[in-house]
Amino acid sequence: MIRISSQQIFFGGINRLQDINSNLVNTQQQISTGKKVNKPSDDPVAAARILKLDQELQRSETYGRNANLADNRLKQEESTLASAVDIIQRVRELTVQAGNGSLSANDRQSISAELKERLGQLANIANTRDASGEYIFSGFQGSTPAFAKNDEGKWVYQGDEGQRVLEIDDGVTVPISDHGKGIFVDVPKSISVTSDDNGSDNGVSASGYISGLELVAPNDLTNSFIGATPSVPDDLTVSVVNLDGDLRITGPNGSPDLTPTPPPRVGEEFEVAGIKMTVNDAVYDPNGIDPVTGLPTGAGDTFTIGVNDKQSIFGTIENLIAGLDGISKTTPKSRAEYDALIAETLVNLDNAQESIILKQTELGGRLNAVESTTAFLEDSELYTKEIRSQLQDVDYAEAISNLSFQSFVLQAAQQSFAQVSQLSLFDRL
Predict the structure, then answer these.
(1) Listed residue (175, 182, 150, 193) closest to 307, CA to CA
(2) Helix or strand or coil: residue 217?
(3) What is the DSSP track for 162-198?
(4) Between 44-98 and 313-326, two packed helices, what is the crossing angle to 10 degrees?
């Protein structure tokens, strides 16, 4: 026979009531929080998985914010560049209008006035700021305006060539900025007469001028310098070499010699290395002074043709404004200079538009990458939340049913304990 004392009965009943009450409280907590696992001891395995899923969600949310920031920055840049293209297109229309030979000096001044306004608008666009107040085209120098006027009143780039990137997923980064130097400054320039002298290299301008300058066969220019470094030079030199007006065409520093046979002459249109031109009114002085020896060796008008130069879109517009304000068109030379200015400006504007459009295309590719990554993050987050919900979220119908049952059991246990706790051996004596 096993003897059970009153104290054992009492403590056993109390422990049973505490266990039932603990289960009841746990169920109540599940219903109030909506979670099956409120502490690791509820389900250690599920708690560990839930912790990992929470970390995954935090990672996805962080990358999602980065992707949203990248999307906003890229769309702002895309919109800004679209505005720049609109202004350049208007400048091109004004340039075509300025090329009308029937325009008066006042008409050219009116065009110049609007060009100055458009130039200011383009500078404002290039100095666009983002939501945090940083200049989007200044590279890493976000607090510095991308473009500002120098002492000569010309717009120059002030930023650096840095490009900011943002990580939008594990191992996935996307550039969210572009420096203004690559977009607005390093624009391929039309071939042009960049300098000319009378052959003595003493700063005296040539008597003649070049007209009809045109690049008609780019491949010929490249092929003329096969094996050279760089493959296309920055300039060519055209010189009058004798009293007959024969011309000599060379690469940088006199090499290689590209002069055709027979050599072209002053007043004749010719083509060399894919470039077409006519040298007009150039002269040769048999008593010209050699700039190195100082001896009279003969010298003729010399022209330097820029073929691989770059020029900012601001410089293109500034040169056009200066030409409209300063070229009189009263002599054949000035008229040729004006016509060349219009032709060069149109080519330079087209190059600037192409540069910006290429950047817009690149931005479109980045936006597509951000969009696809964002969609992947959203799908991953949705899947992660679904798994976490299966592990963590409470089934209210089941929980409420358990709560009712546990309340009933607790009530019954309390009544039973009340009766059992009153039993005593003394009642049997």
Answers:
(1) 193
(2) coil
(3) ---EEEEETTEEEE----HIIIIISPBPPPEEEEEE-
(4) 20
- Segment 354-378, tens digit of pLDDT: 999 999 999 999 999 999 999 999 8
Q: How many CB atoms sit inside 10 A of residue 184's CB? A: 26
Domain at 82, CATH number: 1.20.1330.10
**Structural domain containing residue 79:** 35-189+312-329+342-393
Amino acid at 50: I
69, 161: one domain: yes
Structure tokens at 375: 């969609």
Element (H, E) at 302: strand 302-306
Same domain flag for 294 and 383: no
Considering the entire predicted model, what is its pTM?
0.76
- Measured between its terminal Cα atoms, the distance across the chain in Å is 19
d(C-alpha 83, C-alpha 46), whole Å: 55
Nearest C-alpha neighbor of 422 from the set 4, 10, 8: 10
Locate tokens 């383009």: which residue? 122
**Do 61 and 177 fall within a single domain?**
yes
Average pLDDT over residues 82-90: 97
pLDDT tens readout for residues 408-427: 565 665 666 566 556 555 55
Q: What is the mean pLDDT of the chain?
A: 83
